[in-house]
Structures are given as C-alpha cells and as structure tokens.
Amino acid sequence: MPVTDITTDPEKLEMTLVAEFAAPAHRLWHALTDPRQLERFWGPPGWPATFTEFDFTVGGRARYHMTSPRGEASRGAWEFLRIDDGSSFEVIDAFVDEHGAALDGFPAMRMTFAVADAGDGSRLTNVSYFTSLEALEQIVAMGGVEGARQAISQLDAVLQDLRAYAQGKGTRTELLDDTHVRITRLIDGPRDVVWRAHHDPELMRKWLLGPDGWSMTECEIAQGAGDRYRYVWEQDGVPDSGFGFEGESLLSEPPRRAVTTEKMIGMDGPSTLNDMTLYEEEGATLLTLLIEYPDKDTRDMILATGMTDGMEASYARLEEQVIRA
What family is reported (predicted)? Predict the structure, then answer.
C-alpha cells in the first residue's frame, strides 16, 4: 500500500497524508496535475471523479464531481493559490453545488501537495489545514481519512505504464473488504470497441460465454440508465441446462462507465451492484469491475464458483473474436 501514514492534529488543525511510490517524482507530479490522470484516483473506489474544469495557474480554478454507483454526486472545487512547478502546489478545496458555489454547512480548507524524490521512487505529502476544530472533526466524521487512503492507494496503478501494469496478467480479483471485490483485465484494444462489445447484442453473443461449450440464447441489453437487461446461457446439447442474469442499468456514461444491478434469474434475495469503468492508454483498455455484494457469505459463495476463471475465458474470447476479428 503506498499510503504510509495519515495523521490528524487537533492542536494544529491539520490532517497529513504521506505516500510513497516506485515511480519518479516527475511522473507523480504529472499524475497530480493532469485532470485525465486525476480522474483515475481522485475519489475512493465507487466514487470516481470527473474534472470539468482545470486551469492550472495561480488564481485558476478546477471543478470536479465524484459520482456514486447509484448516481449521487459530490462536487468540489480548487482555487490554485501557489504553484512551484514540479515540486508543490497549494489550493483552497471547497464543497460546491452544481453551479460551483460553495455549499453552506461544509468546510473549505487550504491544502498543499508536495512531491519529492524518495530513494528509488517518490513521496507525496498532502496536508489539509482547517479553520476550526469543528471543521476538522466534520471531515473525519464524513470518512475523510479512510476516503483519502482509498483514493491515494489507487495511484500505484496510475503511475505505471498500463501495459506493464496489466498485460499478460489475465483477470485479477482483489478483495477490498467484506462486500467489495475489484476485478481488472487489460483488453488489448481501444475503449470504444470494448464499450461496443458490451452494448451490441451481436458482438456480446460472440464472447460473453464463459467456458467453451456454452451459447448465449437470450441477450437483451440495457443501453441507458433505467433500462433492464436479461442474459441467458445454455450448455450446447444439454437440455434444461440454462441459467441467466437480469438487472437494471443505474448509470451509463459511454464509453467510460456503466453501473448495473445483477441477480440470477429465479433466485430470491438482494442483487449485486456491478460498476464497470474503462480507461484507454496507447490502444489498450483497462477494464475495472467493482462488485458490491450484499454480505460476505454471498461474496465468498459466488467467488467459489470459479467466477474469475470464467471471466478470463470470456475476456480472452473478447480479444480474439471482437478486437482482432
């Protein structure tokens, strides 16, 4: 984990985060000052950021919003106070509404980002300065410490070349906590093609099959938020072997993000939440799927079915049957 320390100091009214990375300082600086790079980590898993404005000059302003899987938005803005190119910058960070106006009842804070060499890599020191103890305690109560840890811990993947980070490593499953799993797979092809492969029934029938010997017999796709989908598979030559999933699209931001519920057809109980994001770099696309389960037992039961192996077979087929076709 890159985050080595997060401390709060009620006397100095400060919160300090320190993180170290196996990447040079100039690469870390670029990640912190490029809005497209910031979008990959500024926000904890499930709440990715979208920067709609980024004027990286003294007196300039940045605006962003973080969107939950269910579409709730949390908006923020930075005003750049100081920039020491390549080493540090300072902002006023504030909660804002959809028009960019500061929200009543939420604290604004001064925040510094400092980048330095550290051994064979680099170190980030991020300090937030509060105007009162109440403001500091409010941010802590809102989950600011854990949210910062989760967000900055995503920077490792951002700082690496995408192919070096993921190519040849297949489908990877990470247990984030008792109810959240993150799955990643590099698809060797452009993002718009990967998106289309998930939203074109003809293409989907070519690759979303799991192990060999199965066919997709029903493929009703949700194209936008509020639409429902239904997928059914059958084992070739085996009567009554069908099973399937159905659900609803909660969020659709082509070609970047799609969030759906998922439930096995005919089964009782709550749905899972599937949050898929696509990021392209030099013709390759990193597919990240964040799955939220209703409880740990459901998580473990589904993972024990060999889900990761089945997904790898499908993603390999996507590359072969769609990308390289």
Answer: Belongs to the AHA1 family.
